[in-house]
Design a protein that fits this description.
By secondary structure, this protein is mostly helical. The protein is built from 3 helices and no strands. It starts with a helix and ends with a helix.
Length: 123
Amino acid sequence: MADSTNEVNQLLEGTTESMERTKAVLRDLANELASLVEIVGPQLDKQIFALRQARMTVTTEIREILTPLRDIRKFFLEDDYDREMIRLERFVVVCKELKELKAAGVLDAVSDTIIRLSIAEKK
């Protein structure tokens, strides 16, 4: 029985030593982890701040882009669309006619006449 008690005591001592070594390793790991948290924590905060700033910038830019797009969409869906398109077509026709008059020299002649009449009125 003394042998078995002695064996048990040796096993307990071995287990206790092993547990003490394991405990020391765990304590060292916990200390290293705490040191890492002190280093990594502020860096994470900076990255979170930068990401939030980027998100706010993107959100603002998208909002700025969507506003004119909504106006364009609204223009095409409103009742005024047909009337505005007719006005645009008339404007294009007038521009083409002005171009033809300019090419034919009629606008220059009219401009010269207006200038001469204006000068004659002032005298």
